[in-house]
Design goal:
The chain is an alpha+beta fold. 43% of the residues lie in helices and 17% in strands.
């Protein structure tokens, strides 16, 4: 049987891939975190998960929906970070990565959380573009 050429091939059962982000990622360029010896293990979020996070931090004002970008970055951080290495507490001890420490880090150091979130979203966009290019070829 001849197989039809499809314009889009998807695997709905595939899990979202994960990846590591470190201080060398372009998102950290020009920040105090650039080149620092840490890395953060993140998972890609689905479009559905991202949309749910946006709704969670959005308000409707006179018919216009506005998203709190800082709150969105914190939510992306909390939802996507799986573990980290090279992040420590004030005593120089490794800081465990769990829901409590992620929330604490995101709330106290929201700048770091926002940059990690930007790196996560950038990585997802790059993967989507690469996958689209692969599909075209």
């Amino acid at each position: 049987m001849e197989q039809k050429k499809l314009g889009l091939v998807i695997d709905l059962e595939a899990e979202n891939p994960d990846f590591w982000v470190d201080g060398g990622h372009p998102a950290f360029e020009g920040t105090p975190f650039e080149g620092q010896p840490f890395r953060v293990h993140c998972k890609c979020l689905s479009r559905t998960e991202i949309a749910a996070l946006q709704r969670k931090v959005s308000k409707s004002v006179r018919g216009n929906t506005r998203t709190d970008d800082t709150a969105f970055g914190i939510e992306v951080f909390n939802a996507s970070v799986l573990e980290w290495e090279g992040i420590g507490d004030k005593n120089g001890e490794p800081l465990p990565c769990n829901e409590t420490t992620k929330r604490g880090l995101a709330n106290k150091y929201w700048g770091l959380a926002s940059v990690i979130s930007a790196a996560v979203l950038d990585e997802q966009n790059q993967r989507a573009v690469a996958k689209d290019e692969e599909q075209k070829n």
